[in-house]
């Protein structure tokens, strides 16, 4: 997968101290602007992973802790 990705985080929210955080956004090719389907999104050290949809959109829910 190309490394020329632009990651736009639309918003990050955590509802409480012990609540899970949810990261949503859209991922695209930086050179062409084309959406990237199936890109893996993760946070190093967190036990969470997701993949982008056809339009590049994703939702990643991080566990509490």
Structural summary, described in words:
The chain is mainly beta. It has one domain. It is 0% helix and 48% strand. The protein is built from no helices and 5 strands. It has strands at residues 5-14, 21-29, 40-42, 49-51, 57-62. A 3-stranded antiparallel β-sheet has the order 1-2-5, with no helix packed on it. Strands 3-4 form a two-stranded antiparallel ribbon. Strand 1 (5-14) and strand 2 form a beta hairpin. The protein is elongated, with a radius of gyration of 13 Å. Residues 1-17 have low confidence and may be disordered.
Features of the shown structure:
single chain; 65 residues; mainly beta; two-stranded antiparallel ribbon; 48% strand
Describe the structure in brief:
By secondary structure, the protein is an all-beta fold.
Describe the secondary structure blueprint for this structure.
Blueprint: E1 5-14, E2 21-29, E3 40-42, E4 49-51, E5 57-62
What structural class do helix, strand and pairing data support?
Answer: mainly beta
Query: How many domains make up the 3D coordinates?
Result: 1
Low-confidence stretches: 1-17
Major sheet strand order: 1-2-5
What does the main sheet amount to?
A: 3 strands, antiparallel
Q: Quickly count the helices.
A: 0
**On the 0-100 scale, what is the average pLDDT?**
76
H and E order: EEEEE
Task: Specify the overall morphology.
Answer: elongated
Strand percent estimate: over 45%
Helix content: under 10%
Radius of gyration, taken over Cα atoms and rounded to an integer in Å: 13 Å
How far from one another are the termini?
31 Å
- The number of E-state strands comes to 5
